[in-house]
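Figure 6 in text form: structure in, sequence out.
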C-alpha cells in the first residue's frame, strides 16, 4: 500500500553526505510506489522553541516561521525519514530544533508510525552515532504509536559528496526507502 513518506534533510552544507543518502532513500521509496516529499532545512527559517507550552492547548506554535508548516507535514505523513550530520556525537542543532518545534504534535492525533534516521559522520563506529540515535529514540518514544525502525549510519564520510563514492551506503539508503 502506498504510504505518505516525508524525508527531512537537515544538513546546511552543499553536497551534504547525509542529504545524498536521504535522496537515495527517497528514490527507493518512490520506486516502491510511495508518495514521497523531500524537505531540506537549508532554505528554512527555524527559531528555537521558547518552551511556553501554549501549543499543548492550541496545537499551534506562537512563533511564526517555517517550522509550523513542516510540523504540519510531519504530523500528516505515515513514514518519517530524518537525515542529520553528526555534530559532536549528536544530532545537528537544526534537526534538534525542528524536533522541539514539533511539540504541537504531542497532544495531537499524529499520523506517522515508522521513523528512520540517516546519519553521516567523519569517523566510523557505533559509538559515533549512538548518542544521536538515542536522541532520536527519545523523541520517538514520546509518540507512543510510532517506532524508530532503523538507523543508517554513514561513517567515514568527511568531505562533501564523499557519500556519492560509497556504493555500499548508497545501496543501503536506497534499500531503506525501497523496503518501507
Ligand atoms: C560542528 C561539527 C561537528 C562535527 N562533529 C563530528 C563528530 O563528533 N564525529 C564525527 O565523526 N564527525 C563530526 N563532524 C564531521 C561531519 O559529521 C561529517 O563531515 C559529515 O559528513 C557531515 O555530514 P553532511 O555532509 O551531511 O553535513 C563534525 C562536523 C562539524 C561541522
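Output sequence:
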Amino acid at each position: 500500500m502506498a504510504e505518505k513518506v516525508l524525508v527531512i534533510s537537515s544538513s546546511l552544507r552543499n553536497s551534504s553526505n547525509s542529504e545524498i543518502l536521504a535522496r537515495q532513500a527517497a528514490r527507493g521509496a518512490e520506486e516502491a510506489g510511495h508518495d514521497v516529499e523531500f524537505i531540506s532545512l537549508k532554505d528554512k527559517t527555524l527559531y528555537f522553541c521558547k518552551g511556553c507550552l501554549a501549543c499543548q492547548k492550541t496545537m499551534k506554535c506562537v512563533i511564526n516561521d517555517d517550522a509550523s508548516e513542516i510540523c504540519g507535514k510531519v504530523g500528516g505523513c505515515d513514514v518519517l525519514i530524518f537525515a542529520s550530520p553528526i555534530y559532536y556525537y549528536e544530532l545537528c542543532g537544526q534537526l534538534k530544533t525542528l524536533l522541539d518545534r514539533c511539540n504541537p504534535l504531542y497532544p495531537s492525533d499524529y499520523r506517522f508510525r515508522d521513523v528512520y534516521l540517516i546519519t553521516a559522520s567523519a569517523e566510523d563506529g557505533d559509538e559515533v552515532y549512538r548518542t544521536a540515535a538515542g536522541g532520536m529514540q527519545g523523541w520517538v518514544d514520546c509518540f507512543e504509536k510510532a517506532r524508530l525502525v532503523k538507523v543508517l549510519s554513514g561513517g567515514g564520510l568527511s568531505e562533501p559528496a564523499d557519500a556519492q563514492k560509497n556504493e555500499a551506503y548508497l545501496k543501503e539508503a536506497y534499500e531503506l526507502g525501497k523496503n518501507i
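Caption detail: The chain has a mean pLDDT of 98.
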